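Thread: "does anyone have the structure for this chain?"

Original post by V.I.:
We have the sequence but no experimental structure in hand. Need at least a predicted one for the grant figures.
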Amino acid sequence: MRSWGPLLKDVSRLDAVDEDNATRVALKIQDQLARADYERETKTWSELQNLIELASNNVDFYIFLIDSVADSESAVTMSLKNINRESPRSYSQYLSAKKNSGGSKSQPFYFAAFINGVIHKKLKIIPKSVQWDGQGDIIFTKL
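Reply from O.Q.:
Generated one for you, tokens below.
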């Protein structure tokens, strides 16, 4: 996380002030980790992501050279990430939302929808009440 600010400044995604702000928050995270204050650290990590998104025109965290809002595929990802802004599970939500190679530009392929739909029906052994990533938020919070 300490590298996000300098890296994004180097690729012209943040200015010097925003880089300093990101570095300040990253150092706060480092301190929280050193004190084993994991609950606060996770919340501060989410704060850092929000700070960078606001300062960088919603840079995509995993493909940092594109804007999540400007790129059509990534815009879908951003809107799905924003469904629950309180959850710091952005990476997991990103992976669940990201277009996979099985889709097209007009109809993107989403892994979670595929598993909960076609695969669920094909296997005929998964109870209807069981969904892919159904306990994800609970487990993430506990960890």
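V.I.: this helps a lot. The chain has seven helices and no strands.
O.Q.: and The mean pLDDT is 75.
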